[in-house]
Write a structure and sequence with these properties.
about 300 residues, alpha/beta, Chemotaxis Receptor Methyltransferase Cher, domain 1, Rossmann fold, 2 domains, 7-stranded mixed sheet, 12 helices, globular
Length: about 300
């Protein structure tokens, strides 16, 4: 394929090639898209070309690379493996906030947790997985919901696994540091109980996740396209707005693998635009974008 631009869609060409700082051809885009597909299973169509440019232009500036052609040559080599990780991190969408899609947390608090917490108080364990946790808002929201039902959860066998492919957002989650705008969806009572704060001279505040929340959540790097090291099952799995970036067959594969990691009667929470395909026969719709793995006695 030549480096000519006339095979781009009109919309892609208008956004990518007018007045840009670095040369960016269709060949460059296709190479980057192929690497992203290979590494994390995400499919990038041409309409994402402006996003690819805007996300990666900072990497080119920081490296002193004069074109996307040279950048592609770098990340395709063993020497550029570290930069390839940075590229994947930059292109991984991480839109998140505390208590996003709040009906999920209402369902978790009122329907799911009471029975599970009763079991924990009898000596059972509780395991929850936030798959595609981004910068920590989702797993900490889950932890806050658990603490609303069981304020002493940190003293019992309750664990929330938070995984993501992006190392940068995992570090933010581990730091547990958020600004005023980020914690706005959290009630004042919850903030007072489970966070500490630092007030600044301009009136703004920095919020720090408290010890109880930290004890409940463990952050780990995990690519959903790789082998999963977890041997046990989970009572609840959140995997929301992750599979929308995958092709249909990869989506089905992910849903089936997730269902295999659910304990009998366990719940899977998905994003508002996601639907578990018919090929996952073991999951039944329980509420809006909430699926349940039936127990044997339910069949």
């Amino acid at each position: 394929m030549s480096d000519a631009t006339d095979t781009w869609t009109i919309e892609a060409r208008r956004h990518v090639f007018e007045g840009r700082e670095f040369p960016f051809t269709q060949r460059d885009f296709l190479k980057i898209a192929a690497m992203v597909q290979e590494d994390v299973g995400i499919s990038l169509t041409e309409v994402k070309a402006p996003l690819v440019y805007s996300r990666l232009v900072k990497r080119l500036r920081s490296l002193g690379v004069e074109s996307f052609k040279r950048y592609c040559a770098l990340v395709e080599t063993d020497v550029g493996a570290g930069e390839r990780d940075q590229m994947i991190a930059a292109l991984t969408t991480n839109v998140t906030r505390f208590f996003r899609e709040p009906h999920h947390f209402v369902h978790l608090k009122t329907k799911v947790l009471p029975q599970l917490v009763a079991g924990v108080r009898r000596g059972a364990r509780l395991r929850i997985w936030s798959a595609g946790c981004s910068s920590g808002e989702e797993p900490y929201s889950i932890a806050l919901t658990v603490l609303a039902v069981m304020p002493d959860a940190m003293h019992h066998d309750v664990k929330i696994l938070a995984t993501d492919v992006n190392r940068n957002v995992l570090e933010k989650g581990r730091s547990g540091i958020y600004n005023d705008a980020a914690v706005a969806p959290i009630s004042r009572q919850m903030r007072a109980e489970w966070f500490t704060r630092e007030r600044h001279g301009d009136g703004s505040k920095t919020w720090y996740v408290g010890d109880a929340l930290r004890k409940l959540v463990a952050f780990r790097e995990l690519n959903l396209m790789d082998e999963w090291p977890m041997r046990h099952t989970y009572h609840v799995i959140f995997c929301r707005n992750v599979t929308i970036y995958f092709e249909d067959d990869v989506q089905a594969q992910i849903w089936n693998r997730l269902s295999s990691k659910l304990a009998p009667g366990g719940y899977l929470y998905v994003g508002h635009s996601e639907r578990v395909t018919d090929c996952v026969k073991k999951l039944e719709l329980d509420a809006n974008t909430v699926y349940r793995l039936a127990r044997e006695q339910d069949k």
